[in-house]
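User: Please fill in residues for this 111-position structure.
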């Protein structure tokens, strides 16, 4: 997470060079802390990118199938003082339509 010039705005960045498998949020969506924002894949391992704090998604800078670099901004959000009421997502759909289960910080081998 990188803070922006506004105190309540932050960016969610990629921890590594990877391919974007899925983007699991839309602009304007409220997200809870640890909710899955996107799933990326590097070296046949999938990693869930999660929201570091509750907030509202302002823009999305990547799409499924895109190759991204370490530190590249995945999306921007505005910090929210209240949880969105949406339960933590623990599963996501992979690029081939199979369901995968994730914790807030996890990597799974591609099967």
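Assistant: Residues filled in for all 111 positions:
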């Amino acid at each position: 997470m990188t803070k922006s010039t506004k105190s309540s705005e932050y960016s969610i960045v990629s921890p590594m060079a990877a391919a974007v498998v899925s983007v699991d949020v839309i602009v304007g969506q409220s997200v809870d802390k640890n909710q899955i924002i996107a799933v990326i894949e590097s070296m046949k391992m999938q990693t869930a990118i999660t929201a570091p704090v509750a907030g509202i998604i302002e823009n999305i800078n990547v799409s499924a199938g895109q190759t991204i670099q370490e530190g590249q901004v995945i999306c921007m959000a505005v910090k929210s003082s209240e949880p969105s009421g949406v339960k933590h997502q623990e599963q996501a759909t992979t690029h081939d339509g199979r369901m995968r289960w994730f914790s807030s910080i996890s990597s799974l081998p591609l099967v």
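For context: The two ends are 29 Å apart (CA to CA).
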